[in-house]
Structure formats: structure tokens, C-alpha cells
Write a structure and sequence with these properties.
The complex is a heterodimer of chains A (935) and B (442). Chain A is α/β, with parallel strands linked by helices. Chain A contains 34 helices and 14 strands. In chain A, the strands form two sheets. In chain A, strands 2-1-5-4-3-6-7 form a seven-stranded mixed beta sheet. In chain A, helix 5 packs antiparallel against helix 6. Chain B is mostly beta strands. Helices cover 8% and strands 45% of the residues of chain B. Chain B contains three helices and 32 strands. Classes of the chains: A alpha/beta (935), B mainly beta (442).
């Protein structure tokens, strides 16, 4: 069991329980040693400071002008989640760091009160006493009745895992900004409504007062004004002033820069809603026509009937009146939208940080493989932001040019600052920590000890952290004033290329370990201004002495020169890393010098002596965007091609990739990897659907992997069956029982290359006779066997079209398909594999298929393999060259060649496809004999 | 029971390793006609005419205009090559109309609906720039769709086939008769033509099903009972009559066959095609190669298909393609036999089986055998299986591939996979170059 990868299987998957239950108990000598720190807490996964909540949650708090900081709601809205955690206390903490000066009132030199459109502020803070770390997003909402018209709120993402908050900062910030923007939009709408009502009230009051004054005037013949009359006149004057003030406010709130919304990819308005408003606006046109911006009014005039009230002259600033709730402050549509978004955020960031990061990395890498990723991956979720993509696509070339310009002209400093902006020095802790761990722990490490090791990490963590021991409980670890991490991306993009002197520096120190203040603001960042002087001036408390290169990039960075070279390889690596994450089985360190070389340059010492990579996965954002920027140029596929020639030129690539593929499986079973330990900072045990859209597919993958594993073990002829699928020959699973057939189809579906990005060519269950069109469309079909005349017909068509299909008979357990003598599939589907879990196997398959994709990519995009070098060259010599390449360079044997050729054909079709029209479905086939396999 | 030659799954010489299914028709597709190098039109019982790109399989136009099934289709291109060629097609339908379509714009140019009966065949006489429609009578039209002249009512059955002969003559198959018409220019020198019946040939015993012109000197007809008559195209005299060439006993070299009866369907000459020296006949389920020089059948495959052969065509490379009601398309190669006299199989051996061979005298056959033994044979080099119903017709596009149409409403484009793959690579690198991605970027 020591060698079995599944030991590390901490609680990520539900099926684990039954998996483990079904296995016999381990002999004593093989069992995992007990958790050495068990005395500290029975649960080895518990945090050092044992947080009082069970899982991450989102807290919305308000700094009420009446009662001070108070929690409003949590997401998920479940008392169990926050547990014994003191929300009131924590609200106080998080609200107290809102240092933002959101001045509203009468600024000097201005006659009327001014509204400030303040940016949100973003702070990371830790409360080590509570064991809680939070990303805190401060925002202000407008309320006519509030002091200075504003009410400060904050949304906090609270987690027990500090790394999660730090490493997901950008993502959290981006997501929360969206939610906040939504909330604020709703609030502005509500505020404008409120103002309008108020204006009507005032108007009405004025009319009433006016009338009264007139009456008084008439009634009064004495020639002088009574005190009453003067009072009334004053009142009238103050009402009039108030009207002007409110009109001004209304104008201000309406003049909120809407382009801001348009720029972001968040569109809070629904068209129908807008339409509605237009109609409503028409009704109201008469009443609102005197207002300054008729164009804008539609948005705010959704108030069909309102009967104005008389306003008392002395509108007392009363503290006993009830303040509006959050719900009342915001338009209901936007409020529910915001809540939905927050729920979405909660789901997105649920689970362990390692899992999130791995997922982000693999997604980023997949995105880069824009040419090949459709083959085996579900890429639909990569198009989350189609308009953005399109936009980038249009500007691809010019952006590219700009990027290069940046590269040449703008030297390191600026870039460094922009990155250093939110990266606080605290973040060097993990790295330092790991170095220590390396020294102290490594020698006696076995893979089975990864849990304890993690705990050790935490202890070490505690030791290193000054502020924790100093008893000060709040640290502001980093802040960023507003969202636009995105806007910076272009400049960040050029970062790894710039020969920054800081790159090689060791990142230790610069951290305030002893602090007198209870609040440490370690780093803040004004988002709009990237100029360091401003930055320092406005936030003097910020520590900015050492602007570091963003170590987010450290994990999987490659040097610029090689970057395209490694794109695919990286994918492989990350795939393997994925694998490792779960079963800690792959030894990455051995596989390729290309990969490891660049890393030491970054001064991070990622490897230990035996070459095991030990960098926890890092967010990938910058690198991804850099690549995106540097390719560009296609509307539909924004990334290949630049890498073409480097591939051809790099002699190491092929050999290394071959090695990778050779080693991957062997290593899987018995090598240990340290990486998995990074995953065990598990703050909660909830599964992490890192991406909501993937949640279903995640489960599907698991299931498919499990079924596939079973299939491989049960059927000795799994190899030719899988070969059929990989080479594009339709496989028919024939059987009487739907469940059995569907299970087999699910199992095999992971081997089916997609023909286009739209749908997987898998049909789970068919009962009617098949047609040639079906083989063109589907590559894996579950077919019902019937004992009726119709069934005979079905079988007849099968024999008629036998040349296009392989038939797997689930009932008699036979397979009729062409012979397979290659080596690739045996690596893919080894029936003696040590892999035991579905998702692990799925990842194994994924990694090998990705290697295959890269081979197919290489093959497809090598010009001379398909077209003659000179005009006189005969077709024959091109064919020879092609075959030589496949055999010698790619190391393919026999039928493996056909697999790569088929994939290459799919790649070509996908690439040359015009954006408007779909891929012409065509059926390719070979005239090869089939054989019957039996168990 | 069936002794149809099969080839198995390994077909090295079969170039068609890629197919494209073209959907669009809602009923049997009966006709395919080539428009130019890369376009073709299809038509059938649903009355729709579809234009396709043979290269990409893209549907170019859907031509709606007929209300009934289409009975004849003919390409009608303008003769003047100087200007950009104006491609037209003529279609005749059971709704008694003929429509002329513009293939470039996909629009109907003109419609003629003054017919008394369904037009069953259309022939274009390029040389005279007129076209003929054959139904119960024969009409001559010019390009502007003016009726130039017409014959009197011939029969109710109408003309089933038309073929152009030298000297402004056409041969029309009307039932069992073959009628020769001549077009005579009107005296006044205007564009007018008169049509004149010249001769009626009544040599066939049964309905004439196929009519093909071999060269300027000869044309061939085939009838329902399996008669094949070679005619002189100038004086319309009969040169050769072959009646029993399909008779199995005459060609004992082919595999023994067990037949219970010889239905007329199995002997009807469904389709004829020819090259300079040979006539290829689809007779029942078989294919026969008749050499005009030697005046005998030089090769045959008596049961080439499981069911009637509907269409055959000779390819330039000594290959022959046939399609059949059984839904398959087969590719044959005409090969020379290495050692001459074939296996001297005793015919008596066949007779031992005792059934079949109705009324055939074994002795006679044995005598004839020596001289009639074909020097060639048809070798099956590949078959294309894709349609689920009778393959009505096919169109050979050379390098571009082969289009087949069938009663299962589909058209399948068969392509050479190697070539397509190469072309795709070419396109791919062109696109790469277009996008400017081939430059090094460092």
C-alpha cells in the first residue's frame, strides 16, 4: 500500500468512502503512521489555530451609524457554517480596516453637497486568534437618510486558509468587484428613485407652503410681515434650496460614468428590463421632462405612481428612526443578482486552494493550446467571456505590436512595481517555509507522511510568523484599491521577459515581524495609478521598499525564449501535476531538463536534490495573458502558430517528450512526490467544484474514469477497442440492457477525440438501425440488441457497414475490430495499472492523450511533412519523409501512426474551418480487415 | 446462394477512403448531372434540383419550381467560350413542364409548360444550338425557348431515349421501335428547323431500354429481353445482333451458378456505355464487355451485383464502375488474362447439379467454349458501401471523386482520402501564411 498512490487520497471525492471500505484492511506494518501531533487536535487536517467555522463563507457587514459594525448576512446562509465563529467580532475587525476616506458633504468651494463615486477598496486581513483570514471588499452605498448619504458596507470572503486568500486574491478581487458593481448599480437606481420621491415631496411641500404664504399675504393687510409669515417664507426658501440640492444630487447620481460598466464584462441590465423601463419612462416623460438628462432618465423612472407627502419643516436627524436594510437600499433585481453572484463565488472558491490552483493552471494551459484542446477536452467552459475574446481577437495584432514595444522599451522597473503592487512581502513566507521544510523534513519523508508534513508546515508557519506570536491579531496582508488587475495585465504581460535585476533575489526578509500596531498594513495598492510616488504618498503605511517580481509566476514559468517551445510540454506537465495532486504518483523532476532549467533562474530553488518539484501550484494568470497577448491575430483561435518553428527547431523537444511519455506510467506507481502536500492545507472538506460549469463534468469524469478502469481490467481486448476510438473508427457497443451498454459507453467516451468544439461524438443509446450518416456523426454508439425482426434488421445494417465500425458485444463479450499492434494504447490502458480511482485514471488518460495531441500538433504543423520542399520533389519522397517522421521522430509504431494521422486530420479540419460554418462532417475510413476477439 | 464475387475488407486499390454524405433531398435521387469541373446537379422524385460543389460538398443552390418528380435533366451550356460561360440546366418533370435554370445565380430562367405529356428525355444538340424534348412527341427548341417544330403524336408511351447521330439526325427509342428523325433547316434561311421522320427500325423484340452512341459510325441499343444491336449510324443498318450473350452456358469459365429460372429482369440491358472499342453493358445483375472489333463479348461478370445493375461507366484507367439496386457501387478493372484457354471444366460437371441451365445444350456450349473464351476478365478492385438503398446513378469527377445518388435520399461524395488530406494541409499552410503566423516571433 505504501507504493499505492491512493494513500494520499484525502477526502476530495465522495466515492472514496466506499472505495476504501471495499478494500481489505491493511497489515499493520504497511499502515500509515499515526499523526504525530495528534495531541494537538484529533483531526490532522485541523488548522493550528483551530478555526471556529467549518468551511469558507462570505460575510456581508455594515458599519452602521447607529450601532457600529454589524454582520448582515452570510453566504451560505447556514448557521452551521460559521459555527462558533463570532461574526460580530469579526465584523468589527473587518470594518475597522476601512481606512478609506470617502468624503461626502460640502467640499470647500462648492455650494452643494457632492457625491463621491468612490472606488471599492480591497484588503486582505488575517485574524490569527480566530484562525480566520479574509479577503475584505469595502464598498459604500448611497442612502439619502444616511450621514453624508453614504453607508459603508463590506463583503468578506472568510477562510481558514491564508494561502487561499493570498493566492486567489486576484480572482477574488475580480469576482467581488463584479458583485459589488452589481450591488452598487442597484443601489444607484434605488437612490435615484429615492431622490425623485424626495423631490416630489419637496415640490409638493413647496406648493403647499407657497399657497399658505399667499393666503397669509392676502389675509394680512397690516403692511408688515408677521413672524409666522417670515417663518413660512424661510421655510419656503429652505425647501427651495433643498430642491436644488436634491436635483443636483440626482444629476450627479445619473452622471455616474456608465462606460465603466460597459468596459467591464459585466452587464447587469437585462434587455427586457430595459424595455420595461423605456415604457415606464414614456409614461413618466411629462413629469421628468424638465430633468437635465432625458436620455438617462428612463433608467430611474420606474415609479409608476407616487403620491407626494408633505415634508415637515424640521426633518429631525433622528437616531431612533430605522435605517434602511441592505435590501431596501438596492433595487431588488440587482440585489438578487448580487446574491446569486455571491453564491456563485462561494461555490467557485469552495474547497482547497491547491485544487483551485491546479484547476486554474490546467485551464490556463488548456486555453493556450487553442489548436489542440478541443480534441479531448471540454473546451466550452473556456469561452466564458466570448466578447472579451472577440475584442482581443480584433485587436490581436496591434496589441501584439504594443506588447513587443513594451518589451523593448519599457524596462523592468515599471513592470516590477505594477506587480509588486499587491504582492506583499508576506508572500515570501511560503517559499521560505518550504526551504526550511526541505532541510528538516525531507530525509525521512515518505509519501505516506504527507499529511503530517502538511501539519508541520503549519507549525513552521506559525513559528516564522512574527505577528502571530506577537499576539496582535489583525494583519492586513495586502490591499488593492480596485479591480483592474485586468487592466494591468498588458504591462504585466511583458514581465518575465524583462531582465529585471530582482528576479534572482532571494525573497526573505522585508517583513515586519514585530509590530507595535495592532494593524499591519503590509501592502496596499491604488489600482489606477501605477506610479510609485503616488502610491507611496497616498498610502504612507504601505511597505513598498522591495518591489518584488510577482512570485505567482514562479511555479510554472518558462523563459521567454523557450516559451512557445514549452507550451505543450507544459501542458503535459501540468497534466501530470494534476495527476500528482491526487495520487502523488508522478515524478516530475526526472522528466525534462527543459522544464526545470528556467526555474532556478528565478531564485526559488524549486527542486531538491533528487529533482522533485516542490512548488505549490501557483495562479497562472499573468503567464496566460502574456501568451494571449503575444499570439493574437486570429479571430477564432487566438493562439498557435508562433510556436510552430521553435518546435521544429528545438531538438530537445521530441526526445524529452518521448521520455516523458515513457516514464510517466512507470513512475506513476512508485515514486513519491512532494507536491501533493501542498494540497493538504485543507480548510474544509467540501468538494471543490472549482468551476461551476465543470461540476457536472467533474463528476462525469470521475465516473467515466472508474468505468474505464473497470473496462480495462475486465476486457482483455480493451486495446483494440480503444485504438478504434482513437483512430476515428466508430465503435458500436451492442447489448440488450441499456444500463450495461451506457456504462460501457461512458467508460469508453474518455478516449473519443472530438471532431469539433461543439459536441462529443458519443451517442449513448440507439434503438433504430444505423445509417451511414450516424458513423459520420458519432464515433461511439450504444446500440440496443433486440430479439425481433427489427433487431435482425439492426444486425443486418451492422454487417453491411462492418467496414466502418468496430463492434463490441456487451452480451457475449466479443469485439470485432481491426488488429492493433502499437504501443501507445498499452500505456494508456494497462490492465495491471496500480491506479485505483476513477479520477486518477482519468487524469492519467488525460496526460497521455495530451502528449498524443502534442504529437499530432507537431505532425500537422510541420510544413515539409505534407508539402514538397521544392516544386520538383515527388509526392513519394514527401510521403517517405512523413512516415520517417512519424516513426523515428515521434516514435510511433504500427497502428499508432494512424491515430496521430487521424488526430492531425481533425486538427486540420478544425483549423481551416471558416469561422461562420461548422466543420463539414466527413467520414474517413480504411480498408482493413477486422478480427473477432473473445474473452 | 449468391455467387457474387466479394473482395473483403482489404482493398488496396480502392482509392476512396473518405466520404461525405450530402443531405437535401426528400425522396429518391435519380439523376446526377455534371455542370462544370467542380459542380453538379442532382434531381429526383421530390422535384427539387440541388446544385453541389463536388470539391467541398457544399450545397450551392436549391432550385424549386417543379411540382412533380423530375423525369429528365440535361446540362445546357452556351457554346461561346469567349465570354464567361453561362451554365444552364434543363429539367423536365412529371408536371409537364421544362424549366431552364441558371447555375451561376441559382435562378429559374424560363419555364415551358405547353406539353401534352410528360417529357421523358432531353437532348441538347450543341452543334445546332437547339435542344430536343421527347415525350409523346418530339419537339425542337432553340436557346430562347421558342418551339421550332414538333412531330406528330407518336405513341402514348412516348420516347424513352434519344441519341444524337451524325448528319443532323437523332435516334429515338419508342417502345420496341427505333425511329430516326432528321432536322432540316427551313428554306428561308432563318433559324427555323423542320423535323422529319426518316426511318423506323423494328428489330427489337422488346422495349428498348438503352441507347448509346459509340462513335460517328456506330450506335448501340439494348432491350428488355437482352438483345444488343449494333447499328451503323450513317445508314441505320443493323451490324450485329447479340441475343444470348448473357447466356451463362456460353461462358463456362465463370463460377458455377445455381439458378432456378431466368427472369427477363435478369437479362434486360439496363444501361450501356462505351469507349472507342468496347461497349459495356449492364445486363441484369451482370456486366458484359463487348468488343466492337472482335464482335464478341471479351469479358463479363455475370453476377457483378446482388441485384440489377442500374448504371455503369468506363473510367479512363481501364476501370469500370457499376452501381446497383443492392445499394453498392463496385469498381472493376478490365485485365488481360495471362494464360489463355481457361480451365477446361467439363460442363457435364455443372449438369450434375441437375437444376438450372434451362434448355441449354451442354455439348454445344462445350464446342463454343474454345472460341468464345474471353481474353480479358473483370477484376473487382473495390466496392463502396454507404447507401442503404438502390444506387440510382453516379457521376465520376476524376480526381475530385465520385458522387453517387440513391433511393435512400442521399448523395454520397466518395473521395480519395490521401489527396484530401494533402489538400487540407495545403489549405492549412495557406491559411497560416495568410494569418502571418509563419514568421518567427522571438
Amino acid at each position: 500500500m505504501i507504493s499505492a498512490p491512493d494513500v494520499v487520497a484525502f477526502t476530495r471525492e465522495e466515492e472514496l468512502e466506499d472505495e476504501l471500505c471495499s478494500e481489505p484492511p491493511l497489515p499493520e506494518e504497511y499502515s500509515v503512521p499515526l499523526f504525530p501531533f495528534a495531541s494537538h487536535g484529533a483531526n490532522p487536517w485541523a488548522k493550528v489555530a483551530s478555526s471556529k467555522f467549518t468551511r469558507d463563507f462570505i460575510l456581508i457587514s455594515e458599519f452602521s451609524e447607529q450601532v457600529g459594525p454589524q454582520p448582515l448576512l452570510t453566504i451560505p446562509d447556514d448557521a452551521k457554517v460559521s459555527g462558533t465563529f463570532d461574526l460580530n467580532y469579526f465584523s468589527l475587525r473587518i470594518m475597522s480596516v476601512d481606512y478609506q476616506a470617502s468624503f461626502v458633504g460640502h467640499p470647500p468651494g462648492s455650494a452643494y453637497p457632492k457625491l463621491n463615486f468612490v472606488e471599492d477598496s480591497k484588503v486582505v486581513l488575517g485574524d490569527s486568534k480566530e484562525g480566520a483570514f479574509a479577503y475584505v471588499h469595502h464598498l459604500t452605498l448611497y442612502d439619502l437618510e444616511a450621514r453624508g448619504f453614504v453607508r459603508p458596507f463590506c463583503m468578506a470572503y472568510i477562510s481558514a486558509d491564508e494561502h487561499k486568500i493570498m493566492q486567489q486574491f486576484q480572482e477574488l478581487s475580480a469576482e467581488f468587484s463584479k458583485a459589488s458593481e452589481c450591488l452598487k448599480t442597484g443601489n444607484r437606481k434605488a437612490f435615484a428613485n429615492e431622490l425623485e420621491k424626495k423631490l416630489k415631496d419637496l415640490d409638493y411641500t413647496r406648493t403647499v407652503l407657497h399657497n399658505e404664504t399667499e393666503i397669509q399675504k392676502k389675509a394680512n393687510d397690516k403692511g408688515y410681515y408677521t413672524t409666522q409669515a417670515i417663518e413660512k417664507a424661510n421655510e419656503l426658501a429652505s425647501v427651495e434650496k433643498s430642491i436644488i440640492e436634491h436635483q443636483d444630487l440626482l444629476k450627479q447620481i445619473r452622471s455616474y460614468p456608465y462606460r465603466k460598466l460597459k468596459e467591464s464584462d459585466f452587464h447587469p441590465y437585462e434587455p427586457e428590463c430595459a424595455l420595461d423601463q423605456v415604457n415606464a419612462g414614456c409614461d413618466q416623460d411629462l413629469t421628468t421632462s424638465d430633468l437635465p438628462e432625458p436620455g438617462e432618465t428612463h433608467l430611474y423612472t420606474h415609479m409608476p405612481s407616487y403620491t407626494p407627502k408633505l415634508i415637515k419643516a424640521k426633518s429631525a436627524k433622528c437616531f431612533d428612526k430605522k435605517l434602511k436594510t441592505l435590501e431596501e437600499l438596492c433595487d431588488i433585481y440587482f440585489f438578487t443578482q448580487t446574491l446569486d453572484q455571491l453564491h456563485q463565488i462561494e461555490r467557485t472558491f469552495r474547497g482547497d486552494v491547491c485544487y483551485l490552483l491546479t484547476d486554474q493552471i490546467s485551464r490556463a494551459l488548456l486555453k493556450q493550446q487553442s489548436v489542440t484542446n478541443f480534441l479531448f477536452e471540454d473546451v466550452s467552459f473556456l469561452d466564458e467571456k466570448p466578447h472579451e475574446k472577440q475584442y482581443r481577437g480584433c485587436q490581436g495584432l496591434s496589441q501584439d505590436a504594443i506588447d513587443r514595444k513594451c518589451l523593448e522599451e519599457s524596462p523592468a522597473p515599471k513592470v516590477v512595481i505594477s506587480l509588486g503592487s499587491y504582492k506583499s512581502s508576506v508572500e515570501c513566507v511560503p517559499i521560505k517555509m518550504e526551504q526550511e521544510v526541505e532541510d528538516s523534513q525531507e530525509p525521512k519523508m515518505t509519501e505516506s507522511m504527507t499529511f503530517e508534513h502538511q501539519e508541520n508546515l503549519d507549525y513552521l508557519d506559525a513559528d516564522i510568523k512574527g505577528s502571530i506570536s506577537s499576539g496582535e491579531s489583525i494583519e492586513v496582508l495586502g490591499t488593492e484599491k480596485s479591480a483592474p488587475g485586468l487592466t494591468k495585465s498588458e504591462s504585466q504581460a511583458s514581465l518575465p521577459v524583462s531582465p529585471s535585476p530582482q528576479v534572482g533575489r532571494s525573497k526573505v526578509g522585508s517583513r515586519r515581524t514585530v509590530s507595535e500596531d495592532s494593524i499591519e498594513v503590509l501592502s496596499t495598492c491604488p489600482s489606477e495609478s501605477l506610479i510609485p510616488e503616488d502610491f507611496k504618498a497616498s498610502y504612507p503605511s504601505a511597505i513598498n521598499e522591495e518591489p518584488y517580481v510577482d512570485d505567482e509566476e514562479g511555479g510554472l514559468r518558462f523563459t521567454p525564449k523557450l516559451n512557445t517551445d514549452h507550451a505543450d510540454e507544459q501542458e503535459d506537465i501540468s497534466k501530470q501535476e494534476n495527476l500528482v495532486q491526487v495520487d502523488s504518483a508522478c515524478c516530475i523532476g526526472k522528466e525534462s531538463p527543459n522544464f526545470l532549467e528556467p526555474l532556478p533562474d528565478l531564485g526559488q530553488k524549486p527542486c531538491d536534490e533528487d529533482g522533485v518539484v516542490r512548488i505549490p501550484p501557483q495562479p497562472y494568470r499573468q503567464a496566460e495573458q502574456r501568451l494571449r497577448g503575444s499570439f493574437g491575430g486570429f479571430p477564432s483561435h487566438d493562439g498557435i502558430s508562433g510556436g510552430l518553428l521553435p518546435y521544429e527547431l528545438d531538438p530537445h523537444y521530441l526526445t524529452s517528450s518521448r521520455e516523458v511519455s515513457k516514464s510517466s506510467l512507470d513512475e506513476c506507481s512508485d515514486s513519491t512526490s512532494y507536491i501533493s502536500s501542498a494540497a493538504s492545507t485543507c480548510s474544509d472538506r467540501t468538494p471543490s467544484p472549482a468551476h461551476l460549469a465543470c461540476q457536472a463534468s467533474e463528476r462525469h469524469k470521475k465516473k467515466a474514469g472508474q468505468n474505464a478502469l473497470r473496462f480495462i481490467r475486465q476486457y482483455p481486448f480493451a486495446h483494440p477497442a480503444i485504438y478504434s476510438l482513437l483512430s476515428g473508427r466508430t465503435l458500436i457497443v451492442l447489448g440488450e440492457e441499456e444500463a450495461i451498454v451506457k456504462k460501457l459507453v461512458t467508460a469508453l467516451s474518455i478516449f473519443v477525440p472530438n471532431c469539433s468544439i461543439y459536441a462529443k461524438p458519443v451517442k449513448h443509446w440507439v434503438t433504430s438501425p444505423l445509417h451511414i450518416v450516424d458513423f459520420q456523426k458519432w464515433k461511439l454508439i450504444g446500440l440496443q440488441r433486440m430479439v425481433s425482426p427489427a433487431g435482425v434488421n439492426v444486425l443486418h445494417t451492422l454487417s453491411r457497414y462492418s467496414r466502418y465500425i468496430s463492434i463490441l458485444d456487451a452480451d457475449s463479450k466479443t469485439l470485432r475490430c481491426p488488429l492493433y499492434k502499437g504501443t501507445l494504447v498499452s500505456r494508456l490502458a494497462d490492465h495491471r495499472t496500480q491506479i485505483k480511482r476513477g479520477s486518477t485514471y482519468y487524469m492519467h488518460v488525460q496526460s497521455i492523450l495530451t502528449q498524443l495531441c502534442s504529437k499530432a500538433f507537431l505532425f500537422t504543423f510541420c510544413h515539409h511533412l505534407h508539402l514538397p520542399i521544392s516544386e520538383r520533389e515527388s509526392e513519394e519522397s514527401v510521403v517517405n519523409r512523413r512516415m520517417n517522421f512519424l516513426k523515428l521522430q515521434l516514435g510511433l509504431a504500427n497502428e499508432d501512426i494512424k491515430i496521430v494521422q487521424y488526430l492531425a486530420e481533425l486538427l486540420k479540419l478544425q483549423y481551416i474551418q471558416e469561422p461562420g460554418q461548422g466543420v463539414n462532417p466527413l467520414l474517413r475510413f480504411d480498408y482493413v480487415p477486422s478480427f473477432l476477439y473473445k474473452i | 446462394k449468391s455467387s457474387v464475387q466479394t473482395i473483403g475488407e482489404e482493398q488496396i486499390q480502392n482509392p476512396y477512403t473518405e466520404l461525405l454524405v450530402l443531405k437535401g433531398h426528400q425522396d429518391i435521387v435519380r439523376f446526377l448531372v455534371q455542370i462544370d469541373d467542380c459542380r453538379f446537379a442532382s434531381a429526383g422524385d421530390d422535384g427539387i434540383v440541388l446544385l453541389w460543389n463536388a470539391e467541398t460538398g457544399e450545397k450551392l443552390f436549391e432550385l424549386h419550381g417543379h411540382t412533380h418528380k423530375i423525369t429528365a435533366i440535361a446540362p445546357f451550356s452556351s457554346p461561346d467560350a469567349s465570354e464567361e460561360k453561362n451554365h444552364l440546366i434543363l429539367t423536365a418533370s412529371a408536371d409537364r413542364t421544362v424549366i431552364i435554370w441558371d447555375c451561376t445565380s441559382g435562378r429559374q430562367v424560363q419555364k415551358v409548360s405547353c406539353f401534352h405529356s410528360t417529357v421523358k428525355c432531353l437532348t441538347v444538340l450543341q452543334r445546332l444550338d437547339v435542344w430536343l424534348s421527347g415525350g409523346s412527341d418530339l419537339c425542337v427548341w432553340n436557346r430562347k425557348l421558342d418551339l421550332l417544330c414538333k412531330t406528330s403524336h407518336l405513341t402514348d408511351a412516348g420516347i424513352s431515349a434519344l441519341v444524337e447521330l451524325p448528319k443532323n439526325c437523332v435516334a429515338a427509342a419508342v417502345g420496341k421501335e427505333l425511329i430516326i428523325f432528321r432536322l432540316i433547316a427551313t428554306i428561308d434561311g432563318s433559324e427555323g428547323w423542320n423535323v422529319l421522320e426518316v426511318k423506323r427500325l423494328v428489330d427489337h423484340q422488346d422495349n428498348i431500354l438503352s441507347l448509346v452512341s459509340v462513335n460517328d459510325l456506330t450506335f448501340v441499343t439494348g432491350s428488355h429481353v437482352g438483345e444488343l444491336i449494333v447499328w451503323n449510324a450513317l445508314d441505320w443498318t443493323k451490324q450485329v445482333t447479340e441475343c444470348n450473350f448473357w447466356d451463362s452456358s456460353v461462358h463456362p469459365d465463370v463460377q458455377p451458378e445455381i439458378k432456378l429460372s431466368q427472369s427477363p429482369n435478369e437479362t434486360s440491358v439496363q444501361h450501356l456505355t462505351s469507349d472507342e472499342e468496347c461497349v459495356f453493358a449492364a445486363v441484369g445483375k451482370g456486366i458484359y464487355v463487348y468488343n466492337l472489333q472482335m464482335k464478341r463479348v471479351i469479358a463479363c461478370q455475370r453476377t457483378a451485383h446482388d441485384s440489377s445493375v442500374l448504371h455503369i461507366e468506363k473510367l479512363p484507367n481501364r476501370q469500370l464502375i457499376s452501381c446497383s439496386e443492392d445499394g453498392s457501387v463496385r469498381i472493376w478493372e478490365l485485365r488481360e488474362k495471362q494464360q489463355l484457354p481457361a480451365e477446361p471444366v467439363a460442363t457435364g460437371f455443372f449438369n450434375m447439379w441437375g437444376f438450372g441451365r434451362a434448355n441449354k445444350q451442354g455439348n454445344q456450349a462445350a464446342k463454343k467454349m474454345q472460341e468464345n473464351t474471353p481474353m480479358y476478365f473483370l477484376e473487382l478492385v473495390g466496392d463502396l458501401i454507404g447507401h442503404s438503398s438502390a444506387v440510382q446513378m453516379f457521376l465520376y469527377f476524376g480526381e475530385l471523386g465520385l458522387a453517387t445518388c440513391s433511393a435512400d435520399h442521399l448523395i454520397i461524395l466518395w473521395k480519395d482520402g490521401e489527396r484530401e488530406s494533402r489538400l487540407r494541409s495545403l489549405t492549412l499552410f495557406q491559411k497560416l501564411a495568410q494569418n502571418g503566423d509563419l514568421q518567427l516571433r522571438f
